[in-house]
Design a protein that fits this description.
Elements (H helix, E strand, L loop, with lengths): L6 E2 L10 E2 L2 H13 L1 E10 L9 E9 L2 E5 L8 H6 L5 E3 L2 H10 L7 E3 H7 L7 H9 L1 E2 L16 H9 L4 H14 L3 H14 L21 H21 L3 H4 L2 H10 L4 H5 L7 H5 L1 H13 L21 H4 L1 H21 L3 H4 L2 H9 L7 H7 L4 H14 L4 H33 L9
Parallel strand pairs: 1-8, 2-5, 3-6, 6-7
Antiparallel strand pairs: 3-4, 4-5
């Protein structure tokens, strides 16, 4: 049987609406959405890689009976009238964690939601991007050529607005198909717990020492170089914030790390570095040199440590040396969880986050307290029900029992190999032609 060819989704059924840019139109949109029925499809477009931060530059909404609305948060930074209109309505988003923070910045927070990307993961779909899930479940194709454009551009080109409207065109329909699939697999309750956790999570906590996320920072070996990198990162961040551009457009991470390692003292030394030969880098040469100088002046006592203090377990590669029994517990649990993941067609990281598994097995509680510990670490009830028995069994594993099990498995493999070889030899002997009987 030939597979059906996906149908391109080229135009919104109601056409591309005008962008809402004033208070009167915003109130009209809110009233229309409030009068609609069923869930509301929600999406947001950011200018990642172009502008400073992750602000929304377009918000798209569609609800049965109200049509599609495109709203400009740059012109209307307070979208609370829309939030109020949808206070008790289920939101449908794809990859909600990407959009919820920027929506919260403009006053929009769901009271309940359905995440089609997360639902697709739990349903075991092989690809979970929006275009892929729409194609798999609805037989439609979405164009994605404008996914990485600069959405802070004004006015927004018509092809971009068409793309944005299409992103919410079939999202509620997709939600129903994902829910049906989850219901068939007995996983809808799991998904609902995950969605409730997303709503309850609130905004992420500010990162400690965000400069440490600089790509390539591991190449810096001394604490002095780290101090210079921190000063350069702070100077770049301030400049990017002032200009409202992505920090990487002001100075790439590779150039920042290169300057921290080389510690240039003059414009000539700075511009001799590979990352500072362009006009944009030279334009702010004094900013970078001042930052290097500040890093050089940091006292020995105030130099940043190579790593931040953490209550997290050590990296798994170090467990065998530091605690062989803990390493055996982790190996057992990983094997069992991988098997459970395959049987349930749920990604192993969705069954339980690796960090949670490591925390429980590095400093294990009493067997009867594992469920409470998992809940304390943020695991949902469905995850606890499935994973707690695995971790409880893992507590019985030691380096000695693991070695014995591996030896037993090796012996069984050798015996099977020997038996297979014997069968092959016997079969070969049976296939050989018998020698003719010599004449009398």
């Amino acid at each position: 049987m030939t597979q059906a060819v996906p149908i391109p989704l080229l135009e919104p059924r109601d056409g591309v609406p005008d962008v809402v840019t004033d208070e009167r139109a915003l109130l009209e949109a809110a009233a229309a959405l409030a009068a609609g029925t069923g869930p509301v499809a929600v999406d947001a477009e950011r200018a990642s890689g172009y502008r400073y931060g992750q602000a929304a530059y377009l918000v798209q909404l569609r609800r049965e009976g109200s049509g599609t609305w495109l709203i400009d948060p740059a012109a209307l930074p307070d979208l609370s009238p829309v939030h109020d209109a949808l206070a008790d309505v289920e939101w449908v988003l794809h990859a909600a964690t990407q959009d919820l923070p920027c929506l919260a910045e403009v006053g929009m927070r769901p009271s309940r939601l359905f995440d089609t990307e997360l639902g697709a993961r739990l349903a075991g779909l092989p690809r979970v991007g929006l275009g892929a899930v729409v194609e798999q479940l609805l037989g439609l194709t979405l164009a994605k050529e404008h996914s990485a454009v600069d959405w802070s551009t004004r006015p927004l080109p018509d092809p971009w607005l068409r793309y944005a409207a299409l992103d919410v065109e079939v999202l509620v329909q997709l939600r129903d198909e994902v829910a049906r699939l989850l219901e068939e697999q007995g996983k809808l309750g799991w998904a609902e717990q995950e969605f409730a956790a997303l709503v309850a999570a609130g905004p992420p906590a500010p990162r400690v020492d965000p400069w440490r996320r600089t790509s390539g920072l591991h190449k810096l070996r001394s604490r002095r170089q780290l101090a210079i990198a921190r000063a350069l990162w702070q100077a770049r961040d301030a400049l990017a914030r002032k200009r409202d551009v992505s920090p990487g457009r002001v100075l790439p991470d590779a150039a920042l790390v290169e300057a921290a390692a080389g510690a240039p003292r003059t414009v000539e030394e700075l511009t001799a570095l590979a990352g500072f030969r362009g006009p944009a880098a030279r334009r702010h040469a004094n900013v970078w040199l001042d930052a290097v100088a500040r890093g050089q002046k940091v006292s020995e006592r105030e130099l940043p440590p190579h790593t931040l203090p953490s209550d997290a377990p050590p990296p798994p590669r170090a467990w065998a040396d530091r605690d062989p029994d803990a390493a055996a517990r982790l190996t057992y649990a990983r094997t069992e969880l991988a098997d459970l993941s395959e049987r349930l067609t749920v990604p192993v990281e969705n069954l339980m986050t690796p960090d949670t598994v490591r925390r429980v097995l590095w400093q294990p509680p009493a067997p009867d307290a594992i469920a409470d510990r998992l809940a304390e670490l943020g695991s949902r009830p469905w995850q606890v029900d499935l994973v707690e028995p695995v971790l409880r069994a893992a507590l019985d594993e030691t380096a000695e029992t693991r070695a014995a099990r591996e030896a037993e498995a090796a012996e069984a493999a050798e015996a099977a190999e020997a038996a297979e070889a014997a069968e092959a030899a016997e079969a070969a002997a049976d296939d050989e032609p018998s020698s003719p009987t010599p004449p009398a």
